[in-house]
Amino acid sequence: MASDDTPLSVSELNRRSRQLLEGGIGEIWVEAELSNVSRPASGHVYFTLKDERAQLRCAMFRQRARFVTAPMRDGDRVKVRGQVSLFEPRGDFQLIAEAVQPAGEGELLAAYERLKARLQAEGVFANARTLPCPPRRLLVLTSATGAAIRDVLAVLETRWPLAQVTLIPVPVQGNEAAPALIAALGLLNRQAALDPAQDVILITRGGGSLEDLWAFNDEHLARAIFHSRLPIMSAVGHEVDVTLADLSADQRAPTPSAAAERLVPDATALRQRLAQLDAQLCRAQRARMNAQGQRLDHLRARLRHPGEILTFRRHQLQQIEGRLHRAMQSHLGEQRQRQQQLRQRLSLRSPQRQVEQAEHRLAQAARRLESSLPRALTRHRERLAAVSRELQAVSPLAVLGRGYSILETAEGRVVKRAGETQAGQHLEARLGEGRLTLEVISPRDR
User: Fold this and answer.
1) Own/partner pairs, 92-97, CB within 8 angstroms, 24+ separation
2) For residue 410, with 0-12 CB atoms within 10 Å meaning exposed, 13-18 middle and 19 or more buried, which class applies?
3) Which residues pair with 168 in a beta bridge?
4) Cα(215)–Cα(257) distance, rounded to whole angstroms?
5) Strand, helix or coil at 417?
6) Angle, helix 219-226 to helix 177-194, in steps of 10 degrees
């Protein structure tokens, strides 16, 4: 240190003060309320910590600021780890911040995890009902002045303008939020008991700190959601925020806008799909009409005029009638001639004469029989041999011996036409020597 009578420059004084502060106090934790949060283009973060009686300027440089995940907003209560220092150019006393986290977050998270484990063991998170899409009416529990309801209505107006939305305004932050939400759920479920139509409840709010969202971690609210008669979708906070209300609801959405997208269909997509189906139907109808038109033309070409068919049948009938008349006349003439001959023969021959002539012929026949029997036997033997030779010549076995075969069904019926068989049928082929079992693959008439 310089002597009392040696003056110091301002910069030297500020430098020595900074060294004393940094060396004497070192790194510390400070808990206070955020104020005057500023984020210039450099990436550094400047803010003020204050309590009821004092304030402290702070600076967090870009290298450290990028590791802060929690939002830093005026009014938030935080814990800051840093080193006391002095900004020499202006002589400003400040804290160089190294880390920032919400105050009390560790205790809240521990309480959250304990309650979550207990409710999960009791089955409070077991809801998984399918929500009707679109619901007859959407009952939205949120703040009437928050951004969440504006986001939901904007998405519904774009995707499904026909949606019927009923806003039940409730506080979404603070000690009054959970009781108000529970009371609203009770009222809606009592009304649902009287009106069985399908409604859906949407519980939503925008993002915030753990303290801001703590009302949605209320045990009684989680149980009320679990026991709700009406299906519930929860969309509380941002995508990274998961509350007990989200876990106990039937479905969860990461944001209010995403909840609205899941609750209703996209009218534009439905119109496009309807247009596609209409075009497909038109094409199918035209194709069917073309095919039926071709079939009609084919049938019309095959159809003969009834008058032509009647003329042809009439001509056939006349021919048959003429043949029948001629055949009857010829038969009657033959019968008359035969009758006349029989009558003449009967008149010329009496029964006695016939008997005598028959006796004479019988005697002659007996003599001829005695003399001709050996010759007849010889002749018949020769004829039998000739017939045997002729029979052998036309015998099917002889034909088979020349390379032909006889096809028989399993029942022994001879197959004469291909139309008498069908695919897959088993046949037996009789050859000159032996038999074969065959399978019909495809019968063809020609």
Assistant:
1) 92/57, 93/21, 93/56, 93/57, 94/56, 94/57, 94/58, 94/59, 95/30, 95/49, 95/56, 95/57, 95/58, 95/59, 96/58, 96/59, 96/60, 96/61, 97/45, 97/58, 97/59, 97/60, 97/64
2) exposed
3) 141
4) 21
5) coil
6) 10
Residue 41 tokens read as 């283009």
Is the domain spanning 107-264 CATH 3.20.20.70? The answer is: no
For 206, counting Cβ atoms within 10 Å of its Cβ (0-12 exposed, 13-18 middle, 19+ buried), the class is buried
Give pLDDT tens digits for 318-372.
999 999 999 999 999 999 999 988 888 777 766 777 777 888 888 888 888 788 8
Q: Which of 183-192, 332-341, 425-434 is least confident?
A: 425-434
DSSP state of 414: B
Superfamily of domain 10-103: Nucleic acid-binding proteins (2.40.50.140)
Q: Tell me what pLDDT residue 142 has.
A: 96
Distance between CA atoms of residues 307 and 313, nearest Å: 10
Q: How confident is the model at residue 258 (pLDDT cuts 50, 70, 90)?
A: very high
pTM: 0.47
In this predicted structure, the answer to whether residue 393 has a pLDDT above a threshold of 90 is no
| CA count, 13 A, side-chain hemisphere, 416 | 1
- Whether 263 contacts 202, CB under 8 Å: yes
> Which residue pairs, CB below 8 angstroms and at least 24 apart, start in 181-188?
181/141, 181/215, 181/221, 181/224, 182/218, 182/220, 182/221, 182/224, 184/141, 185/141, 185/224, 185/225, 185/228, 186/224, 188/139, 188/228, 188/230
What's the pLDDT tens digit per position in 69-117? 677 888 888 888 888 888 888 878 888 898 888 776 666 677 788 899 9
Nearest to 209 by CA among 246, 252, 238: 238
| pLDDT of 217 strictly over 80 | yes
Residue 425 has pLDDT above 70, yes or no: yes
Tens digit of each residue's pLDDT (9 = 90 or more) over 259-303: 999 999 998 889 899 999 999 999 999 888 888 888 887 887 777
Q: Which long-range contacts (CB under 8 A, 24 or more apart) does 268-275 make?
A: 268/159
Domain boundaries in the chain?
10-103, 107-264, 266-303, 398-439
Task: Of 110, 98, 143, give the one whose Cα is nearest residue 210.
Answer: 110
